[in-house]
Amino acid sequence: MKRKLKLIWDFRGPGALRTAQHHEIHLNEYVKHQNSTVLMIGHETINEFHSLTFIVVNEEDMKPFRDQLKPHRGEWHDE
After folding, report:
1. This model's pTM is above 0.90
2. Where are the domains of the chain?
């Protein structure tokens, strides 16, 4: 089974959700333009002042995304 990574961009403040939603649009555009393979793209609300956008990729595909998109952090994805 391939290991999966969740690359994450955090947004904080009163406009965090809207910023995360907007960033998700740009991630979708990037993937389409690059013709890249990703497993999932989305956003989550942690609380009123913290939202995030994420992209899930296979471990072996992570480096170009990490180097070009500069996520704030990453974690293993188990779903």
Report:
1. yes
2. 4-70
